[in-house]
Amino acid sequence: MTFAELLDGADMSREIPSCPGWTVRELAGHLGGVHRWAHGVLVTGEPGEELSGPDNPDELVPWFAEGAQLLLSALEATDPQSSVWTFGPKPRLAEFWFRRQALETLVHLWDLQRALDVPLTADDELACDGVAEVVTMFFPRQVRLQRMVPLTYACALQVQDSDVTYVLAGDGTGGVSADMCDVTITGSATELLLLLWGRTELAALNVRGDADIARQVLAAPLTP
C-alpha cells in the first residue's frame, strides 16, 4: 500500500516510534509539505518554502493525496537532465529530485508502516540507491557544512548476497577502499538504509570487526 492509502483511515493521533514526538498527523504533514516543496522547485527551478499540513485531520488525507499527485505530475513533465535548484553537489539537475523524493517517501513509508503495525515494504533496489545517497551525498555534505567532523574510523557497508560495498570514511570524498576499513557491516540494502537513517539497531545486522567502532561511526550525524 502507498503512504496515502495507509493514511486514509489511520488514527492521526497515533505516535511514530521512529520519529519521537511525532504522530501520524505530523508525519503526514511533513511528508506532504516536502512533496509540495519539491513540486515547487521542479516547476520554478528555485527553492521555496516548505508547507505544513492542515490541522483538521479530515482535510489531511485529501491534502496529502493532492500534493503527492502534484509531485508525480511535475516529475512526469520534467526532463531529469534539466537544470533546477538542488541542495546537492553540482551539476544541479532535476534527476536529484527524482531520487530524493523517492527515498524520502520510502523512509517515511517505513515510519508509517511501523507505527501502524504493517509489514515493512522491502525494495532493495531503491534502498541500495538510498545507501549510496547517504554515503556519497548526505555524509560529505554534513562534513562540508561543518555539521560533523571527518570520521576517525572507516566503516564498510556490505550489501549481502552482492558485490556492492559502500565506505564511510574521512570527509566522504573517497580514497578509502573496503579492504582498508576498520569494520564491516553486512545486511540487505533495506536493512542498511534503515540503519543509516536511525530506523533500526546495529544488533539487527552482521558486524565483522569492532562493533564499538561501528557504533561510533553511526553515532555521527551522517544525515540531516
Secondary structure: elements and pairs:
Elements lengths: L2 H5 L16 H21 L12 H21 L17 H21 L8 H21 L6 E9 L5 E6 L12 E5 L1 H8 L9 E4 L1 H9 L5
Parallel strand pairs: 1-3
Antiparallel strand pairs: 1-2, 3-4
Helix pairs in contact: 2-3, 2-4, 4-5, 5-6
In a few lines, what is going on in this structure?
By secondary structure, the protein is of the alpha+beta class. The protein has helices spanning 3-7, 24-44, 57-77, 95-115, 124-144, 189-196, 211-219; strands at residues 151-159, 165-170, 183-187, 206-209. It has a four-stranded mixed beta sheet with strand order 2-1-3-4.
- Principal-axes geometry comes out as globular
Main sheet, how many strands, which sense, barrel?
A: 4 strands, mixed
What level of helicity do the residues show? 40-55%
**Kindly state the mean pLDDT as a whole number?**
96
Radius of gyration: 18 Å
Query: From the helix content, strand content and strand pairing, which structural class follows?
Result: alpha+beta
Number of strands: 4
Q: How many helix segments?
A: 7
Q: Element order, helices and strands?
A: HHHHHEEEHEH
What is the percentage of strand-forming residues? 5-15%
Distance N terminus to C terminus?
27 Å
